[in-house]
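Researcher: Here's the sequence for the chain we discussed earlier.
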Amino acid sequence: MATNTTKVQAMAEKDLENQVAALRKQLATISKSLSEHGYELYENGGSSAYEAVKKNSRKAARFVGEEAHMVSEKARENPMTAVAIVSAVAGIGLLAGLSAYRR
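Model: Thanks. This is the structure I predict for it:
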């Protein structure tokens, strides 16, 4: 009986080791993909990950601010177009809300 338990335990450990290896491989693939798109993952601990998130969130906030400024400039240049776009988006939102409500 003890050998049976030992065999099961060894099989479970081997299975877990295989799963961990597969997860590490997937994480490496994801990290590589993210780094190709300009993101960095740090493996040195929480503070490095925090710094990376902080750095990337600043970049994102700056980008959103620049885009918002550009959109507001275009809205000032073409007010009727801006009203038409906002009305169309509101109409689509209203229709989507009504269709979701009826289901």
